[in-house]
Q: What sequence folds into this?
């Protein structure tokens, strides 16, 4: 079992024990007890009421935050000809076809999102075992396999963020940085929750949002009292 440091234990004392609080108060407390010297990421953990072992109940979606996440997304696009030109004009960091695929197969993974045109997916399939487990494989369901590469690249560069439930039925999604104003973090949080609720699979039964907690990278989690609008 990992041993917690003095700063973490101090943060726990400042919080005054386990309690559920409103989202805005939780965000305020997260900022108050964040102790790392770097600009910590603020993330939300959502425990979902799904059977994570059933593929039809997997939760997958995306959110366009009103204030971004405080990080520049590095986007690669697998495309040719006019689509490659469109991707470059939209701000893609790396654009290529078979040459880019070979580069990734060689171990290069210095990007955060990948987009591909449908005609490239046969070749991009070579990267499935490498990119799939990392959540980087282009996927039609979330809009990263498309001929409209300009639009998706622009959204990704503005901070569009994808989420997917893990094998335990949990979502962990960043909503910004410790340096963000509380109101901006709160508005990002609301945008995330609305997107998650909208992504509820038809096969999920019972209460969908079971528990929500928020924390900074190094700080303790603070449980949020879920508003009625999210009690689904």
A:
């Amino acid at each position: 079992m990992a041993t917690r440091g003095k700063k973490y234990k101090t943060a726990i004392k400042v919080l005054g024990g386990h309690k559920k609080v409103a989202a805005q108060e939780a965000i305020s407390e997260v900022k108050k007890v964040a102790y790392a010297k770097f600009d910590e990421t603020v993330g939300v953990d959502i425990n979902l009421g799904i059977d994570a072992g059933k593929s039809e109940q997997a939760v997958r979606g995306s959110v366009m935050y009103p204030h971004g996440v405080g990080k520049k997304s590095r986007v690669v696009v697998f495309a040719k000809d006019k689509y490659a030109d469109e991707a470059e004009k939209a701000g893609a960091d790396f654009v290529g076809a078979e040459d880019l695929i070979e580069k990734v197969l060689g171990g290069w993974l210095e990007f955060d999102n990948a987009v591909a045109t449908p005609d490239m997916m046969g070749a991009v399939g070579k990267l499935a075992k490498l990119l799939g487990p990392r959540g980087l494989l282009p996927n039609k369901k979330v809009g990263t396999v498309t001929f409209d590469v300009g639009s998706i690249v622009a959204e990704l560069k503005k901070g569009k963020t994808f989420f997917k439930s893990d094998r335990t039925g949990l979502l962990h999604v960043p909503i910004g940085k410790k340096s963000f104003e509380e109101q901006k973090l709160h508005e990002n949080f609301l945008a995330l929750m609305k997107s998650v609720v909208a992504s509820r699979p038809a096969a999920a039964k019972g209460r969908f949002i079971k528990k929500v907690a928020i924390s900074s990278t190094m700080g303790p989690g603070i449980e949020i009292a879920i508003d009625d609008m999210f009690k689904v």
The first strand starts at residue 41 and ends at 48. Residues 75-157 form a domain with the Rossmann fold fold (CATH 3.40.50.790). The longest helix spans residues 182-198. The beta strands are 41-48, 60-63, 75-78, 94-96, 113-116, 161-164, 170-177, 209-216, 222-223.
